[in-house]
Write a structure and sequence with these properties.
The protein starts with 8 loop residues before the first strand and ends with a helix. The chain has one domain. Strand 5 and strand 6 form a beta hairpin. The protein is 38% helix and 22% strand. Helix 1 packs antiparallel against helix 2 and helix 3 crosses helix 4. With 211 residues, it is of the alpha+beta class.
């Protein structure tokens, strides 16, 4: 799994996500503790955006990727359920950030609407032998978790799958920061050029399911 050499973007392992408002989806549930969470370092963001932090200190914000691991003899179903919770948290956090961008007018309305249609939150689960990748999003107040990739970690395709999803999630973090008016040294522009051609849209995904 990639650990990025990036002053603005990082990883946190096995730390509880504590800084989220209590809502219907998490009421009565314990704090989520992903094995890996990746996103922008809160300290890299302007002060007016630091309330998007997911932890009290040494925090990440605007995260779009989380991972959960099981032992090689473990059942991936439990990891899948945990990933569903992580995904719901990150989708909710992204929605709140987009709402702020609309309210403050820090991004073009069309760009914000387009971002709202992106499939932008990803999780992966693994037992050390195989990996599964899921997308997460809300539509019409319904939450969706879709399996979009599965591969063996004994073959190169498994590592490539994880790397590609991590890169895509990283680009989404930078793009969201840009919509919120944060200038982070041009990284978001570079990332968008690299992954734009492969970015899924929710409408395309739903059309593919219908076909």
């Amino acid at each position: 799994m990639i650990r990025y050499d990036d002053a603005n973007y990082g990883s946190i392992n096995n730390r509880a996500i504590t800084q989220i408002p209590e809502q219907d989806f998490n009421r009565g549930l314990s704090d989520a503790i992903p094995d890996v969470l990746q996103g922008l370092r809160t300290k890299a963001l302007p002060h007016r955006l630091q309330h998007h932090a997911l932890h009290r200190d040494r925090s990440l914000a605007l995260c779009h990727f989380a991972a959960q691991f099981q032992r090689t003899d473990g059942d991936l179903r439990q990891a899948m359920l945990q990933a569903a919770y992580y995904g719901a948290i990150l989708v909710n956090a992204r929605s709140r950030a987009l709402a702020q961008a609309r309210q403050e007018g820090t991004g073009a309305a069309a760009a914000i609407d387009e971002a709202g249609e992106d499939i932008a939150v990803f999780t992966c689960i693994s037992n050390g032998l195989s990996v599964e990748v899921y997308t997460h999003y809300c539509e019409d107040e319904q939450y969706y978790q879709n399996l979009v990739g599965r591969a063996s970690l004994l073959e190169p395709q498994g590592r490539i799958l994880i790397r590609n999803i991590q890169d895509l999630a990283r680009s989404k973090s930078y793009q969201l920061a840009a919509l919120l008016g944060a200038e982070l040294g041009g990284e978001e522009e570079k990332d968008e050029k690299e992954v734009k051609k492969d970015t899924p849209r929710r409408s395309r995904r739903l059309q593919a399911q219908q076909d």
